[in-house]
Amino acid sequence: MQDGCRPVVAIVDDDEAVRESLRFLLDVAGYDVVTFDSAQDYLDGIDRRRAVCLVVDQHMPNTTGLELLAKLRRLGTGLPTALITGSPTPDILRQAVALGVMKVLEKPLVDDALLRFLAAAAAGDGA
């Protein structure tokens, strides 16, 4: 945790129901959550130094989750990231590994897998 505060998780997903569901789950689990409805919204609005990790949807209009991560990597941001997708194709998995994604989570999400990722990211554990 940072400065004794609750860890901050950034969520980027174009589906409002998913964002709000994740916000509720993570709030109950002890995280502060900031949500964004697009990759551009995230790039424009987040103080990336505050978040301990990023949860990003792959399939969004205009910019996919992997495209957002590629932009962030070019900017030198190595924030621990989980990519969520309903179709984890071999190509998506390959690209995710190349971009340093810590975890690819398949929809529908399993809460325990997401919470394990968040705990590892908040602890600074690359596992």
Overall SS class? alpha/beta
User: In DSSP terms, counting alpha (H) and pi (I) runs of 4 or more, how many helices?
Assistant: 5
Helix content: 40-55%
| Strand order in the largest sheet | 2-1-3-4-5
Task: Produce a short descriptive summary.
The chain is α/β, with parallel strands linked by helices and 127 residues long. 40% of the residues lie in helices and 20% in strands. The longest helix is centred in the N-terminal third of the chain and has 13 residues, at 16-28.
Description:
The mean pLDDT is 90. The chain has helices spanning 16-28, 39-45, 65-74, 90-98, 111-122; strands at residues 8-12, 32-36, 51-57, 81-85, 103-106. Helix 4 (90-98) links the parallel strand 4 (81-85) and strand 5. By secondary structure, it is of the alpha/beta class. Strands 2-1-3-4-5 form a 5-stranded parallel β-sheet. It has one domain (8-122): Response regulator (Rossmann fold), CATH 3.40.50.2300.
Keywords:
Rossmann fold, 5 helices, 127 residues, 5-stranded parallel sheet, globular, alpha/beta
Could you outline the blueprint of secondary structure elements for this entry?
Layout: E1 8-12, H1 16-28, E2 32-36, H2 39-45, E3 51-57, H3 65-74, E4 81-85, H4 90-98, E5 103-106, H5 111-122
Parallel strand pairs: 1-2, 1-3, 3-4, 4-5
